[in-house]
Design goal:
By secondary structure, this protein is mainly β. The chain has one domain. The protein has 1 helix and 5 strands; from the N terminus they run ββββαβ. Strand 4, helix 1 and strand 5 form a beta-alpha-beta unit. The longest helix is centred in the last third of the chain and has 5 residues.
């Protein structure tokens, strides 16, 4: 498993060819999302989620059930 820490709260986990990115916020480098299979958002503050960047990514985005994240369907 490879774990890469990006700016602020963003963490990228790579294991057996799969990529999970946690909290890719507005301060995170775009490269953190390269090849992502899924995204996990711990809460909806801008430092933990960049809605515009994720909207066009085309991968599942997992977030707390009570998260209010406009323009982004979460699973």
């Amino acid at each position: 498993m490879r774990i890469t820490k990006y700016t602020h709260a963003c963490v990228r986990l790579e294991h057996e060819g799969r990529v999970l990115v946690i909290d890719p916020g507005t301060w995170s480098e775009p490269a953190a999302l390269d090849g992502a299979d899924a995204v996990l958002v711990t809460h909806e503050h801008a430092d933990h989620i960049d809605v515009l960047r994720l909207a066009g990514l085309g991968v599942p985005v997992y977030a707390p059930a009570d998260a209010d994240i406009p323009r982004l369907e979460t699973i």
